[in-house]
Amino acid sequence: MPIDYKEYHPKWKLISKLIRIKRAHNKCEWCGIRNHAIIKRNVDGTFRSPSRWEWDMIYSRINNSHSSMTESLKYYGFSKIILTVAHIDQDKTNNRFYNLAALCQRCHLKHDIKQHIANRKYGRKHKGKHQLKLSI
Fold first, then answer.
1. Is residue 132 in a domain?
2. 74 and 88 assigned to the same domain
3. Is 136 inside a domain boundary?
4. CA 65 to chain CA centroid, nearest Å
5. What is the pTM for the complete model shown?
6. What is the pLDDT along the chain (136 residues), one digit of tens a residue?
7. Are 17 and 47 found together in one domain?
8. Which of 50, 59, 63, 101 places its Cα 20 to 30 Å from the Cα of 122?
9. Beta carbons of 38 and 26 less than 8 angstroms apart
10. Does 44 map to a domain?
C-alpha cells in the first residue's frame, strides 16, 4: 500500500533512511533478512534464495513472455524484500529512534496485524478512539 506522507513527519524520508541504512545496516531488525534480497518463504518463516536453475527459469519467463521481473518472481513464488520503518507503538507522531524499527514485509505485517484486521473490519475512518469496541 502506498504511503501517505501527509500523515508523517516532514522529514520522514530522512528519518526512515537513517533507521534502515545507518542503524539497521540494510537488514530487518527482527529477522535479519537483507534489504532487496530475492527469497521464497517457507510456512515456518524460514527462507531461501533462488537456485541457479530457478534463476534460469525466471529470466527465461521474462524474455519469452515479456513479463516484468516482479511478475516472474511472483509466478515462481519468490519475492523481493523491501525494508520499511515501523512505529513500534503505532503512533506516527512518535519518531524517537527507540520507537522505530526497520522491518521486512513479513515482520511489519505481523507487527501491524491487529490494526489491519480492524481497518478491514470497520474501515479506516473509524480508527482510534472512534473505533467500535466489541467484547468477545
1. no
2. no
3. no
4. 28
5. 0.79
6. 567 888 899 999 999 999 999 999 999 999 999 999 999 988 887 889 999 999 999 999 999 998 999 999 999 999 999 999 999 999 999 999 999 999 999 999 999 998 888 878 877 665 555 555 555 5
7. no
8. 101
9. no
10. yes
